[in-house]
Amino acid sequence: MKLIILKICGSLSVGLGVLGIILPLLPTTPFLLLAAACYVRSSDKLYHWLITNKHFGPYIKNYREGKGIPLKAKVMAVVVLWVSLSFTIFFIIPLVSIQLLLFIIGACVTWYILKQKTLYLSEASHNEQQAER
């Protein structure tokens, strides 16, 4: 029963992680890390699929190994965050208090993203080449 629950939680976390790619206030990496933690305890096959996935695997591996988040991912995350937040603040939400709250949340998320270690493309390529040897 425990294994089934962990697989379900892991799969839900992957789903939320994928949604986080589209929805800027939903974090992607924590959900993918949670999925990896659930899968490693319940299914070698699912864990291997997640870690070797061409879209999610490198982000999870680099983050877990303390190498950082790729610069391109950081820039994209901050740009998408502020484009969607700006649209929501200026055109959707009429209440100033909620607009201010969204701005503060956006500022905190931006600060968190930017304070994470940056993995530059040259470092990532170098690390991949060393791993292949």
Got a strand count?
2
Mean pLDDT: 85
**What series of H and E elements makes up the topology?**
HHHHEHHEH
How many domains make up the 3D coordinates?
2
Quote the beta fraction. under 5%
Figure out the total of helices.
Answer: 7
Terminal residue distance: 41 Å
**Rg, nearest Å:** 17 Å
Helix content: over 70%
Protein name: DUF454 domain-containing protein
Pfam family, one: DUF454
Transmembrane segments: 12-40, 71-92
InterPro entries: DUF454
Structure description:
InterPro entries: DUF454. This is DUF454 domain-containing protein. The chain crosses the membrane at residues 12-40, 71-92. Keywords: Membrane, Transmembrane, Transmembrane helix. The chain has 133 residues and is mostly helical. The chain folds into 2 domains: 1-65, no CATH class; 69-133. The protein is 80% helix and 3% strand. It has 7 helices and 2 strands. It has helices at residues 2-22, 29-42, 44-52, 57-64, 71-92, 96-115, 121-132; strands at 69-70, 118-119. The chain has a two-stranded parallel sheet. Helix 5 packs antiparallel against helix 6. It is globular, with a radius of gyration of 17 Å. The chain starts with a helix and ends with a helix.
